[in-house]
Amino acid sequence: MSELIDQSELQSRAARLVEAARKAGADACDAVAVTGVSLAVDVREGKVEESERAEGDDFTLRVFVGKRTAAVSANQLDDPDSLAERAVAMARVAPEDPFAGLADPDLLVKDFPALELLDPKEMTAESLAEMALEAEAAGLAVDGVSKSGGAGASWRLGGVVLATSHGFLGSYIASRHGLSMTAVAGDGTSMERDYDFDSRTFFEDLEAPAEIGRRAGERAVRRLNPQKMSTRTANVIYESRAARSLLGHLAGAINGASVARKTSFLKDRMGEAIFAPGIMVVDDPFKRRGAATRPFDGEGTSGPVLNVIENGVLKDWFLDGATARELGLRPNGRAHRSGSGTSPGSTNITLMPGEKSLEELMAEAGEGLLVSDLIGHGVNGLTGDYSRGAAGFWFENGEIVQAVSEITIAGNLKDMFKRLVPGSDLDNRYSTATPSVFIEGMALAGS
Fold first, then answer.
1. Which residues form the Metalloprotease TldD/E N-terminal domain (predicted)?
2. How remote is the C-alpha of 312 from its chain's centroid?
3. CA distances (Å), 280 to each of 47, 245, 364, in order?
4. Taking a C-beta distance cutoff of 8 angstroms, is the pair 352, 426 a contact?
5. Which CATH architecture describes the domain 2-219?
6. Which listed site, 45, 187, 340, 344, has its alpha carbon 20 to 30 Å from 316?
7. Among 22, 26, 52, residue whose Cα is nearest residue 37
């Protein structure tokens, strides 16, 4: 429950850090206090394999002396004055950063919306073990599953406090529940494995352990006896789980820091159509019970819900204060705390669904590759060149006919985005959410 995290004490400590930094000579400063409680249980073959509980605090003080900045961190706050003096001394010898500074006071959050971030249900090791064992049993019950790769259940609470020298003081607590199971099918050199999982803010939204285990088992069994493919050009459909990576590549390319560094293949495309007409991508920091929902960002500001792609057209970068100043733009509340400062990034980013189910996309494509798993990180952020290892299923006449593996999918994200067609099966559980997507005519390299 929220009583496990004393936000008032965290606020007091963060405020003391800010006061100490001003006394030490900082022109401006902010302090972040983060605390957490987590519990995780792993099981294998019907027995608890590991149970782990962790608790901890972390404090980061960022100071500005003119346009020079420095930050220091500590796990305990026994001597805020000493920590502040060290940070100010470091800042005085740091190089100047013309874009450094706190957020514009006019942008600071004044009212904190209710976003359903905290589930008051406190989990125990025993209840987590029961969930994991149930998921494992369901996976092992699937015909063709030969063994368990393990199952795990987790619960955590995280508290965040941000205090600034120009008057902002905000805090929130968020909960997270997770459950996963890995199943192994076949035997000897013909074994295949797959998994299923769920992660939710509220326990009541978590899928049933038996469902997660069953799906893990079924996914492993259908991967048995994969065949290699010859090199060809083919239609490709990414399952929702795999399609999230494509949306992640987009989020990286429209990150203001990448644009400012000129390392994004979309750096010159603002206001242009980069997807087909009708495509919408929305970033929503206020999504209730969302995985990346927050009442304020890493600078104490809040931006609007952004239609970053509207009717196929690129409309926004993700911007924090420093990046916005560098680009001559207005920040839009997408600051994440990162090391000694902030960096921009997405919150709950969603590729909005289309009208056709996965089965209808396969029927429309006729034949092609259904991607269920991706390997490696072969994407060039500067050019958009794309090359990923993949496994999945070959389909013909809209029906799966064979598991396949050891494939490389190649293309360029600029072309892939233009041809991308979203399905209707949006998986809305995660901070990066997509339906399945269909991309016509991609290069497949096989044996």
1. 29-91
2. 23
3. 46, 17, 22
4. yes
5. 2-Layer Sandwich (3.30)
6. 340
7. 52
Nearest one of 183, 163, 266, 265 to 224, comparing CA atoms: 183
DSSP 186-239: S-GGG-EEEEEEEEESSGGGSPPHHHHHHHHHHHHHHTSS-B---SEEEEEEE-
How many whole angstroms separate alpha carbon 413 and alpha carbon 420? 10
Positions in the chain short of pLDDT 50: 1
Answer yes or no: pTM beyond 0.90.
Answer: yes
Residues contacting residue 130 through CB under 8 Å, at least 6 positions apart = none
List of residues 6+ apart from 120 with CB closer than 8 A: 1, 2
Cα–Cα dist 112/161, whole Å: 13
For residue 136, the one-letter residue type is E
Could you tell me the two tokens for 58? Answer: 């972390």
Q: Following CA atoms 112, 173, 432, 328 in sequence, which dihedral angle do they give, to the nearest 10 degrees?
A: 50
- Give 196-250 pLDDT, tens digit per residue: 999 999 999 999 999 999 999 999 999 999 999 999 999 999 999 999 999 999 9
Amino acid found at 308: V
Based on its alpha-carbon atoms, the radius of gyration of the chain, rounded to whole angstroms, reads 24
- Please report, for the chain, the start and end positions of each structural domain, with discontinuous segments joined by +: 2-219, 226-447
For residue 122, CA distances in Å to 37, 39, 93, 203, 334 come to 11, 10, 47, 10, 30
Strands 399-412 and 385-396: antiparallel
Question: Cβ–Cβ contacts within 10 Å for residue 215, how many?
Answer: 22
How many residues would you count in the chain?
447
What are the b/e assignments for 62-77, b being 16+ CB within 10 Å?
Answer: bbbbeebbbbbebeeb
Listed in sequence order, the residues at least 6 apart from 246 whose beta carbon sits closer than 8 Å to its beta carbon are 238, 413, 416, 420, 434, 437
Q: What phi, psi does 384 have (nearest 5°)? A: 85, 0
Burial of 423 (0-12, 13-18, 19+ CB in 10 A): buried
Q: In whole angstroms, how far apart are CA 48 and each of 226, 312, 331?
A: 33, 49, 48
pLDDT at 184: 97
DSSP state letters, 266-333: TTT-TTSB-S-TT--EEE-TT-TT-TT--SS-TTSB----EEEEETTEE---B--HHHHHHHT----S
Look up tokens 């929702």; give the residue: 240
Dihedral over Cα of 62, 63, 68, 72: its sign: negative
